[in-house]
Each structure stands twice: as C-alpha cells, then as structure tokens.
Amino acid sequence: MKAKLLTGTAMAALSVALFSQATSAATLDDVMRRLDKLERENAELRKQVHDLRGAPVAPAPGLKGNPVMHARVAPSPAPPPGPMIGGMPVKAGPLGPIIDNTTVTLYGHFDLSVDGLINSVYDQGTKPAIASNGSYFGIRVRHNLAAWGYEGYAVVGQFETQVDVASQPTERASLGTRDSFLGIEGPWGAVKIGKEDTPYKKATSAFDPFANTVGDYNSIMGNTGGDNRAEFDWRMSHAIWYESPIWNGFQFSALVSPGQNYAQDNSDYSYGDYFQCNGASTRGSGSNFPGTGGAVPGNIGGNGCTDGSFGDAFSVAGTYKNGPWTAIAAYELHTKTNRQGDDNSNPFTGGAPIVLPNGQVVVTGVHNEWASKLGGGYRLHDWLGDLQFYAYYEWLRRDVPPADMPFNERQRDGVFVSATQHIDKWALSASYAHAFRTPGNPAVLCFNNAADCQAGGSIQANLFDDSADMYAIGARYHFNQWASWYVVGSHLTQGLGAHYCLGPSGHGYALCGRDQNNNTIGGATLSAVSTGLTFDF
Predict the structure, then answer these.
(1) pLDDT of residue 52
(2) Does 189 lie in the same domain as 127?
(3) How far is CA 125 from the centre of its chain?
(4) What is the tens place of the pLDDT at every residue in 7-20?
(5) Which pLDDT band, with edges at 50, 70 and 90, does 311 fall under?
(6) What is the number of structural domains in the chain?
(7) How far is CA 349 from each of CA 300, 353, 392, 451, rounded to the nearest angstrom?
(8) Which helix H or strand E contains 32, and what residues bound it?
(9) Domain extent for 195
C-alpha cells in the first residue's frame, strides 16, 4: 500500500509541475530544461518505490557451483541476544559459512552403464545388460551452534539412499540405505551415530580407479570367500564412530557396531533389523531372503543367518595424505561370525554336518574373523600430466582350530595395485588384484559341466587351487568436475576351487559363476566390458 501511495503521489506531482512550468515558461528551451529536471526527479522516485518493494534476491549457489539452488536457511529456535545480520546470528568460528544457522543441502550422483557380460559357465554365455551402479540421492544438514555459545561446534546429519535408476527398486532403494547419521563436529573432530562405510573400507577407497564398475577391486579385495559380497568392504549398520581432525596430513577414525543379535551364535536378526541378516547384502548371499540359496531355503524368520552373520564389529584406520604421498593402515574385527551354513550344523534347523566320502566331517562353526591392510600411493608429474600409483597388501583371517583349517576358505592374503595417467581431461587407468590360495574350502562345488552339476556336485573344492587374478583397464573423460564418461574392461581367472565374481560391490549386479539352478561353478572365467556416464549435483 505504501508503494502504491508513493507512486500515485509522484505521478500527481509530475502532472501539476508540467502544467505550472509550461504555462509560465518564457521560452521553449526553458520548458524542455524543466521537463528534463522533473524526469530525473521522477526516476529517483521510481527507484525509491522499487527499493521499498524489495529487489529480487539471487539464489544461493548450490553444491559444486550448480546453478540450481540446493541450500537455504531453515527455521530454527530464536538465538539469545547477540550480533545479528539480517535477523541471523553472525558466526565467528572457523567452520561453515560466515552467516549460518541451519544449512540444508540436496546432493546426488548418477552412474549408469551399458555392459557386455562374458561367462564361461555352460548355460550363461554372453549377454548385454544395463546397470544403475552406485547411483544415490542425499540430504545433508548442518546446524551451527556458535551463536548459542558453542564456538566452532555444529550438529550434522545426513540421509542418503541408493537410487535404482535402471532397475526395479527393492528395499535397497528405501530412505537411509546408504551413509546416514546424526552427530556433533568440533575442533577435536566429529562423533556420529547411524550407518556408515567403515574406516577400514574408506582407507583405500581412493585406490581403486574402477570403483562401482565391473572392474571394482572388491572382486577380490575385502572378499573373504568369493561370491557376491565383500565382508571387509562394508557399510556398517547400527554404529557409532569418531573422525579426528587432520593434523599435518594425518587422520584417525574408529567405529564400533554392537551386534545386538537375538541369538548367542548370531544366527538371528539384530534388534531393529527384523529382516536383514547382519553382514549380508540385501537379498543376496547370507541374507536369508527366500530363494537366495541360504542355509534355510524359503524361510523368513529367526536362526537362518548362518552365512557370515557376525556380532560386534570394530574398525580402525589411520591415513596420511600430504603432497604427493599417501599411506594407510587399517584393521577390522567381526566377532562370532556364523558359518554354520557351510557345514549344515545349525541346531535350530535340524541339519547334520556334512561328511565327505573320505570320512572327513566339514566343521566351520562360529568364530571371529578379522582383516588388516597396509598400503600407500605416490603422485608424480611426467611429460603427459600427473601419474598416480597405489598399492596395498591385505590379510584376511578366521580364527579356527587347526583341525578345522582344511575347511577354512576365509583365510588368505591379497594384493592390489593400480596406476592412473592423467592427460588433460582424460584419465587412463589399469589395476590388478590377486587372491592367494586359502588353507581349504568347505563348499562342495560342481565342476564346469552339466553332467557333474546335475549329479549334485561331487567334486570337493578344497582339493583344487582357489587362488584368483583380476585384471582391469579403462579410460575416463571428464567433461567438467561434475560429469564424466568412462569405458572399462575386466577379466577374472581363478582356480577350480575358487568362486569369485565381477562387480560384487557398487555395480548394479555381480557376474558370478552360477548355473540355471543357482549352483556355484568353481573355476569359472569371467570377463566384462562396460561404458557409462556419471553426473554429480
């Protein structure tokens, strides 16, 4: 109303002035000069009116400079009296924006690929496929506490979920399936509670140039027995963890996850889960989902978590990143890991232990499993651009008595190396992973032919070599810091007693040696090619 009144007043004054000045002007030049003066005065009045109405405010820049507005100040309780700018408290600490109370950020990642899958298993062959890979969407919040007297502190939270862009979504794509937490950060670091990639996993996440592709190093690294999950490259549920500040390139992190399992041998679901076995991939091996080939086929209920379900978990890592050098050391422990599904000895299912033709009894039982790794990297500049090297060695162990060692496929060493040459917007990469032979293997695997599979799989896997090698090569072109195109080729060879897969972690699916009845094929040769597009916002 005030703006309209000023506008009307200005127009009336202009009309009266024009009439008065025109009738008393001695010459036409006098009239024109006075008209110019009045026009300038009118322009100033219009500017004042515009200022009163409020000039439009440009949207705040989003994540990574995206022009779409992703952040805004959310409503918060009124702060105590203090320095204010525009009604918001002034933040004087070292963290966050200068003026901030609660910041809400939307972010996401697209990664879709077209794949060619080549499987040596007799009834699988070669086939095309399209994958969603590690696509996700998230909401991140940060509430600054400086205005309330907690200088340098903030409450932080995040919800992140997988997005099945190309496939039919399952419970994996429900809200909070990925890193999700609530915590407090300050000058001493951060403490968070929720679910998160373990420090063990994150310690070497930058080492793999083919993460979430068919060349992902989880085909072997962090993977205790092959198949389609990497137990020591894990996002840990119901966890609490600490992340230290970075001191001269050094950082330390530690995580604890209580097993909170209904059963003493961890064969049941954890409190609060009710459907997913702890330590199992969603609807995958060990999940107890119907039709997954678990120890209790077709069962949804307790005491079926006998394929890797563990109790309390502990994970720690130390990293050093300074200049061209990177160094890491990490350790993780899974207590009372249940492998009764391997020997059919779960008393709740009425199973009887497997007895081999030579009279040996397969015993795997419930024992602790742990892993450790040491590695590093170096970045140098050659005549083409930056050249990055990474390598690490890994120890996987299962604490079983010596008598059970012939059936222990969870104990071995592994090694991984990668190199990436950067040339302008291109990154050319290659990697190699090797799984050393294990002391034994409890699985009865069928040989790679139809007759033996149909006969029930009479070949005992621990009689054969179960080492494996995975090779990957590829290129990535960066359009800018948000979008890229890539192409990857991978090749997995393994002994007759091994059953590793391609793409078991992050890729839209795993390529494994399985027949039409989901029987595991030992020694399958697996290859794949993939090209995809990524976009971050």
Answers:
(1) 46
(2) yes
(3) 31
(4) 444 444 444 444 44
(5) very high
(6) 2
(7) 13, 12, 41, 30
(8) helix 28-53
(9) 107-138+147-536
